[in-house]
Design goal:
Elements: E1 7-14, H1 20-30, H2 48-53, E2 60-67, E3 73-80, H3 88-95, E4 100-106, H4 113-124, E5 128-134, H5 143-154, E6 162-163, H6 172-182, E7 195-204, E8 208-217, E9 220-221, E10 225-228, E11 233-236, E12 239-243, E13 247-249, E14 252-253, E15 258-262, E16 276-279, E17 298-304, H7 310-323, E18 328-334, E19 338-345, H8 348-362, E20 366-368, E21 375-379, E22 384-387, E23 399-414, H9 418-427, E24 431-439, E25 442-450, H10 451-454, H11 458-465, E26 471-482, E27 484-491, E28 494-495, E29 501-504, H12 505-522, E30 530-536, E31 539-546, H13 562-582, H14 589-596
Parallel strand pairs: 1-3, 1-4, 4-5, 5-6
Antiparallel strand pairs: 2-3, 7-8, 7-16, 8-15, 9-14, 10-11, 10-16, 12-13, 12-15, 17-19, 17-20, 18-19, 21-22, 21-23, 23-25, 23-26, 24-25, 27-28, 27-29, 27-30, 30-31
Helix pairs in contact: 7-8, 12-14
Length: 599
């Protein structure tokens, strides 16, 4: 048996909270990959943010040496993946670097929306699927029902489904044996010209860009002159290594292996995820397929609280783009917030995570504007414009029609919550497509819904309507004509561009009322009266007044002539009038953040 035949590259895919990171922990413990004194739960979740929220955000690779029951020693490359719908692109990158996948399903929750979505991703890449039911130790585990669900979706037999408890460590050995037995070894040849797929990267202050690769053909070693096939840039390799799970330098990475490469690349923009590394002197004929370009779904402006931090934010954005290629940005300017960036995200959780990572990892203080989606606007006798920023929205007199993006939503819910979910989808302007019973207690509802309606609070409302048992997946299906208007927020008759948003006409009044109410609560009182208004065009839809700070100007007048008090009151009145005309309203960061939360 040659070296290549003893390599297995596999990932763990599942819905959020079904036990992927816990199973990865047990596999590392069972194979003594991590010393007992160094071990901690969620070992592959390296970010504090992942550990605090209990979710995986970034895929993590680890190299495992496993002695199987046939007495052969195998080299296993395990990649743990995220489960939330916003990080599907992270999963797709991982799947492209593997030959097999452990499909994990919770014995209580059963098959969920992301279970199906990630399964289809794996099938598209011809991965060998190993079905596993986790959490069988729980009292309310529904093993037979979940088996039926998995048989319906995968078409597998009972004996092919592994039963485990990752928390208790039950069945970990069976999982490892199934990987060795079922997952095919990598295809490829060591004597072919080098082809290595870049599937991730991150920035190190001292060594520059660290590139994560899967070697498909040939081999990588320090001192080689290599070329990025899409960028046409050449570098010398300074270091190659593997993850055990800490970085460990090796002499070379052979065909079929997963590891990292250091080339002293200082500019984050020089590395593109999905690019192919080849040898400069003996290049491969063509690059590997790579990844399809991902298109952002949600857009928001991100600005530094202090304009002096703009260059630091720009540098942080470049480094963040390196570790998360599904995130995009371009410079923009706001009258209210100064210089910043217009950023594209895959969803609202993705947006929150990026903002929090920028603040934590780079020590920045940031403000984010209201999230929006990408609209298509047809101008009379002109071209179709793509508008993701309310400030770029043309005057209504110039617009022939507007199209907004629609997604097909798959909501999996307990049968007793069908009514609540259907009502929620209809309130979000959803169009009913189908109902499918996965079993007597679990239903999949399919709706076509405008993307703008689901980006803010739709997922949270599904969870609250189903006592936490509902799940959501969605896919983009195209653009449809819609009656979209620009809702402006005026503070003392001055438009605040950071709070402007694009909404459907029938939702404009209710959103306007909520926004001005939130601003009334969060903008502090000034020495003059402030009017906060929501308007569409010239029509004011909602208004709230913030009364002026009261100063007791007659407090020192003890008795005496009333005319003296009247003079002071008149002087105060005139001062407030002047202040209202020339005074500037200070809107705190909290006001923007609260306004962003308005559904």
């Amino acid at each position: 048996m040659n070296k290549l035949e003893r390599i297995r590259n596999f990932c763990i895919i599942a819905h959020i909270d079904h036990g992927k990171s816990t199973l990865a922990d047990r596999i590392m413990q069972a194979t003594d990959t991590v010393a007992t004194r160094e071990f901690r739960d969620q070992f592959l979740d390296n970010m504090d943010l992942e550990r605090e929220r209990g979710i995986t955000i970034k895929s993590s690779a680890v190299r495992i040496i496993y002695k199987a029951r046939d007495n052969n020693t195998y080299l296993l490359n395990l990649i743990d993946t995220p489960g939330h719908v916003d990080f599907t692109y992270e999963v797709s990158k991982t799947i492209a670097a593997c030959e097999g996948a452990l499909l994990l399903v919770d014995a209580v929750q059963g098959v969920e929306a992301q279970t199906i979505a990630n399964l289809y991703l794996a099938i598209e890449h011809d991965l060998k699927i190993i079905p596993i039911i986790n959490k069988i130790d729980l009292k309310n585990a529904r093993i037979e029902e979940v088996k039926r669900q998995m048989k319906d979706i995968l078409g597998v037999e009972d004996e092919e489904i592994l039963l485990i408890s990752a928390k208790e460590g039950l069945g970990t050995g069976d999982v490892l044996e199934a990987v060795v037995r079922e997952v095919p070894p990598p295809s490829g040849r060591g004597d072919e010209p080098l082809q290595a797929l870049i599937f991730d990267s991150f920035y190190d202050t001292y060594r520059g860009v660290i590139i994560y690769v899967r070697v498909v053909n040939g081999h990588l070693r320090a001192g080689m002159q290599v070329e990025m096939m899409n960028k046409r840039a050449r570098y010398e390799i300074k270091e190659v290594g593997v993850f055990v799970p800490a970085e460990q330098t090796v002499d070379q990475l052979d065909c079929g292996e997963v590891g990292y490469v250091v080339c002293n690349i200082k500019d984050a923009k020089d590395v593109v995820v999905g690019d192919t590394i080849t040898e400069a002197g003996i290049p491969a004929k063509e690059p590997l397929p790579g990844y399809k370009q991902v298109k952002p779904m949600v857009y928001s402006g991100i600005y530094p609280v202090s304009n002096e931090d703009y260059e630091d934010l720009k540098s942080a954005m470049e480094k963040m783009r390196l570790s998360d290629s599904s995130f995009s940005y371009e410079p923009e300017t706001s009258a209210a917030l100064g210089f910043g960036f217009r950023c594209g995200f895959l969803g609202l959780l993705h947006m929150e995570i990026i903002q929090e990572r920028l603040e934590r990892e780079f020590g920045l203080d940031l403000i984010a504007s209201s999230p929006s989606v990408n609209y298509r606007v047809k101008i009379f006798h002109g071209e179709v414009q793509e508008v993701d920023n309310p400030t770029k929205y043309p005057d209504k007199e110039k617009i022939e029609y507007v199209e907004e993006p629609f997604v097909k939503c798959y909501v999996i819910t307990p049968s007793e919550s069908i009514g609540a979910i259907m009502k929620l989808c209809e309130n979000k302007r959803g169009e009913f497509i189908s109902t499918r019973y996965l079993d007597p207690r679990k239903v999949q509802l399919t709706y076509n819904i405008p993307l703008a309606e689901i980006v803010v609070d739709f997922y949270d409302k599904i969870k609250s309507s189903t006592q936490g048992y509902g799940s959501l997946d969605y896919e983009f299906i195209g653009y449809r004509m819609s009656d979209i208007v620009k809702l402006d927020i005026l503070i003392n008759a001055v438009p605040c561009d950071a709070l402007s948003c694009l909404v459907h006409r029938e939702k404009a009044r209710s959103k306007g009322k909520e926004l001005v109410h939130q601003l009334r609560e969060t903008i502090p009182k000034h020495l003059f009266k402030i009017a906060v208004q929501a308007a569409v065009g010239g029509d004011v839809l909602a208004r709230e007044n913030i009364s002026a700070l009261k100063k007791h100007v007659t407090g020192k007048c003890y008795g005496g002539d009333i005319t003296r008090k009247r003079k002071l009151w008149e002087k105060q009145k005139a001062g407030k009038k002047k202040m209202r005309r020339i005074g500037k309203v200070e809107v705190p960061k909290e006001a923007f953040l609260k306004a962003m939360r308005v559904s």
